[in-house]
Amino acid sequence: MENLHVEIEKLSGSEAKSLLVNILYRIEFLKQEAGSQSYTVTELLELSQEVRQELQKEKKFEGANKAVHLICGESSAGSLRIGLHYENKIIGFPDFFTVGPLWDLHTEEGRVKRYDWLVNNINYDMDYLEEEYCNRISKTIDQINAIPSSLPIILWTATNSDEQIALRYFLYLLREKKNCMYVINTTKAFQAIYSTKSPQVDLRHSGEVAPEQFEEIYTTKLGEPLTAEKRRELENEWLLLSKQRGNLRVIEKETIQNVHDDYFDSLIIDFVQELHSQYGKTDFILTAKVIGEILFRSPHLINDGYLEYRIRCLVLKGLFEIKGIPKSMRHYSVRLSS
């Protein structure tokens, strides 16, 4: 029972809810279908065994796995998992490396500093941050550490700051492993396969790749083997990144650049000014609308949480006036101060 309690404690909120729904569904089925008390007891024992198996399944790499794939983002991992089917182990890292501190992120102290910054600046759901964020990061790192030496490792990346940083971070975490490793850049692979097709799509993040496209990219064998020399180079680049104190990164000419926190402020202000000119008056504009347009216009990959943080900073600086309560981008509007 003590081991069972420990495994349950490791579950994130969403995992616990999913497991609970499954249990309640089975119990409701028993109420309707069970013809005898002994039958019910048997079914409950089977349910208990299923729950234990569910708790254990993420701890082991199944023997049927042909390779391990690392990718940035749980959504990207979901699409990759569907595309490559069940003979590949997919590990999605649940973070966005473009924003927030990277200082010593490969250590527990660095992860705590990053968490503190997110809590104090980004308008995430507090239940997610408090109950799931740290647990998911910890579980993912444990999965990476548990990769057996017999399996090749495929690292998926793209030409954006998030995934380029993630590539270097992954390789640093894997620095002691002797596995054969390969890198697939989805931006370049997408161009190689689909550049002649119409309409052309400018892929910015692996999260934009459909499952069937992941499968085609992988089976086309567009991955590049990583030499020991290249691995050391990228590991050292991570160490350099992890000593920088900035909170925002972009890609310039395929190079990761640290930029000031206010990098996107002028783009935000210019768009609000543009809308005021279109309307002929300085009406309040829903923050979600402003953020959606900036995400579309920006040549650099950024997420909505960081843009919402910058809009609140512009309010605090007196450049924007606010209407509503800034508990999320859907709950308040802004306009240029008169």
Automatic annotation (TrEMBL):
Residues 221-332 form the DUF3658 domain. InterPro entries: DUF1835, DUF3658. Residues 68-186 form the DUF1835 domain. It holds the Pfam family DUF1835. This is DUF1835 domain-containing protein. It comes from Planococcus donghaensis MPA1U2. The lineage of its organism: Bacteria, Bacillati, Bacillota, Bacilli, Bacillales.
